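We emphasize that the prediction below concerns an isolated chain of 183 residues; any contacts that depend on oligomerization or on bound cofactors are therefore not represented. The input was used exactly as deposited, without trimming of termini.
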Amino acid sequence: MDIVVLNGAKNAKESKLTERLDNLLRELSAQHSVQNFVLEDMDVHSCLGCWSCWCKSPGLCVLQDDAEKIFKAVIHADLVIMASPIIAGFTSALLKMITDRLIVLMHPYIEFIQGESHHQKRYDKYPELGLLLLKEKDTDEEDLEIIEDIYHRLALNFHTKLRFLRCFDELKKEGAAHEIGLI
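Result of the prediction step, given as a token string:
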């Protein structure tokens, strides 16, 4: 399986999330092809909302940054694991920024899915999504429900499914890959 990991931790080198993610990456690498993107270390900018990726240069973002590497890896992956600390009740700004930019992988044309408007596929296959979170002290169930709902909606628009949403505090430090069904 080809797996892409998007690490949305700020101060990633010193992050508890990165420490836990590194353990998981070692486990996954034993049986899968894994690419790890530490978003903080990349030159990735916020979406301009200019729609050029749909109209002017279909499928290509006008921003000349490292996001293009991520787009290529994502569309060729079987699974994308998005990892983030929960900050003020949601995923990090780094993860949200690249999530917004993934719109380049969709057509601007709309179709109805389950009675809702969603973008048409640009590609034949899209990867499943997984979400790994590190809770804050005050993270509550409502925060997790909101995050889960938004990422389920992202998966629906991405013509795929949210394979899992797990919090690191619920996973063993060793053996997490088995717990989330990847080994």
